[in-house]
Batch of 2 targets.
Target 1
Amino acid sequence: MSTAWLDAMPAFAASGINCPDAGIAAVSSENAMITVHHLNESRSQRILWLLEELEVPYEIKPYWRDPRTKMAPAELQQVHPLGKSPIITDDGRAVAESGAIIDYIIRHYGGGRLRPDPSSQDYDDYVYWLHYAEGSASLPFVIDPIAKSFGKMATPLQRRVDHELQLNLGFIDHCLAETDYLLGGELTAADIQMSFVGELAVTFLDTDRYSHLDAWVTRFQARPAYRSALERGGSYRYARQPAA
Ligand SMILES: N[C@@H](CCC(=O)N[C@@H](CS)C(=O)NCC(=O)O)C(=O)O
């Protein structure tokens, strides 16, 4: 495959990244502690939560969205060419993409915690949720505000988005009907990966019809590790106040 397009993109060229390494790039590192490249009000909050649950030491390098465009600063492209958050750096490598980061942290630092036994059927479900969160469930939430910004012109698209939102939220709600967490009675990293979808739902939509999902968000947001991550990460509009 031609890589001529790389030359046109300085951040890509500088990183030396090619496709097989696209999510995991070599970086220089002087300290061994995990650094979370954390964008305010973003998906990277869940990585802080995971590290708090595991009690793994980490440091935060904060980045701030442009107040007008809401985009991440260009500086984040120095860490990974796509410049999206979350990214972690650890042991001389940058790992991007929430699901890949969670999988990496669980494998390297989890010590068997927050995941089912890899030989069990539950593990297949666990991998499903890790992929489903960003591969399918988030997509209608990303398209929804774009469709809305086009107003009436986007009515057919909006109908499709509304259908996808209902389909996915109905599915997640159904999966939580009889258990506290996605894989049963205990929190796993699958809940952490899926948490952003739940938080988008309770923040932007009426979740009366999705009471199990709503209760799950309330439940995980009350966890001490979740609250510690909030304190460390700063302002996060998707966290509800715990009931008094
Ligand atoms: N699927 C990616 C999505 C990454 C992503 O789009 N992150 C958003 C924050 S929630 C971002 O960096 N937005 C700023 C920008 O696009 O400039 C993941 O889960 O890591």
Target 2
Amino acid sequence: MTHINNKSVMSRVFNLSRGMAMGEAKNKSRKRDEILKGENRCIYCDNSPDSVEHMPPRSIFDNGGRPSGLEFASCSTCNYSSRASDAAASFLARVSPEHKASPEVMRRASKILSTLSYIAPGFIREIFDPNKSEEVWAKGRSNIYGKMQKITLDGPITTSLMQAFGAKLGMALFREHTGNPIPMEAKVFAQHYFNSGLYRGEVENILSILPAFGQLTQGKKTSGRTFNYRYNTDKREILGAFCAFSDNLFFRIFAVCNPIYDDVLFESHDHKPIQPGTLPILSESWRHAFENKNF
Ligand SMILES: [Zn+2]
């Protein structure tokens, strides 16, 4: 697998404007009881489920517009402990090289920033570190050159949060497409990319082995560009997926429960795999990264 630079993100959009912390959209597309019925296990650990997990989370979508689907039984410990990774992914999915973000994108991004300033202040300081940012002339998606902020996102907190989010995606898609929660001895290999770090050739390589297409659908509404993925699975012990969020944030994921795949997957990923049952520990690890940096 080609090694690629996946550490930079181009941004024309954000100026650190802050809004008020707000709750999530309230409209639930399926009833909690219906989702929990017959589920013995959290999709992320071996606890009994007592909450509904939306993966990807509702905060990824503008205007409260999450179509139904990919709603899972989870325990409240995993659900709660991973909310910073959900919020960080929701923010980074909106950091775009486009000339103008819509007012709704800006409004949602400001709200998420405000939430993150409470639950993950180290993430905010890390991504807006002036030493990691430079003004550059670069071509946006519309092929027009302009001034952009190039932000290097290789800090330990951003990496931990994106690893946790990628692991959640892998475990959720494993449940969705194999029909069973991922076994506790399984591993999830996740690689994340930002909008300036993924090349067309790499994408084509990945997509060539992932023939099936997935997105959220509710009547005529689909998650479209905001969230879609390609995947392949033997419906038993391996699932591979490539997930795209608004052409800004991407994850290449393998969820596997047979160690014969380990060597090749270790080689092609920058980070160690994540096992079910470790989300609360992971969220502790990024808090420690925050404390060690003495912010
Ligand atoms: Zn759990």
